Amino acid sequence: MTAPEIKQEIEQTRERLGQTVEELAARADVKARAKAKAGQVSRQVSRQVSRSPFVQRRWPLAAAAAGVLVAGSVVVWRWRKT
Q: Domain range holding 67?
């Protein structure tokens, strides 16, 4: 093997080693990986919930029920106050 071939092989080895170190560092950063996974799961869940036919059909009913509950609470509160 000649000197230029050896130098070229050394450069290629350094490059591969650098890539390997970067990959290992990315795998070792558990906090960043966990944040990325949590964000991905959160987006996936919100998409599924918003597309759910149950949520789309029941939304007006839930809003009406909440309104009745608030109105009833106000009536009871005023009745107890007097």
A: 54-82
4 and 35 assigned to the same domain: yes
- Does residue 35 contact residue 43 with C-beta atoms inside 8 Å? no
Tell me: do 15 and 28 sit in the same domain: yes
pTM over 0.85: no
Please tell me whether residues 34 and 2 are part of one structural domain.
Answer: yes
pLDDT digits 0-9 by tens, 42-67:
888 877 777 777 666 666 777 788 88
Amino acid at 40: Q
Mean of the per-residue pLDDT values for the chain?
A: 83
